[in-house]
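This part of the workshop introduces the protein records we will be handling. To make this concrete, we reproduce a full record directly below:
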Amino acid sequence: MSNRPSSGTNDPAAKVPNGAHVDLYTSRFNPDCMRVKGLLDHKGITYSEYLIDRSPENRNTMIRRAQGRDSVPQIFINGRGIGGSDELQALDAIGELDRLLAQLPPRP
């Protein structure tokens, strides 16, 4: 697991308050994974990245959390499965992604 700090941009309009806990399950060199990380980085979002290429444990955890889906990326915001790159892009297009990312995670 790597906890990536937000790299973001210098454009304050692109920044989103990051109250949410974001988990990404990715593989190296996958264009959809790169696209998702680029979008989150652009928004200044901090996320935890779990590489599945060389970690059967991360892969199995991803499949369990994603209810059997085994494609990457798999994205979770505050524990809620969002899906992959297409779903994240669709949420961003309608403004829903920023709302989800601004929410604090539920308390245990």
Notes: The chain has one domain: 18-102. The CA atoms of residues 32 and 85 lie 6 Å apart.
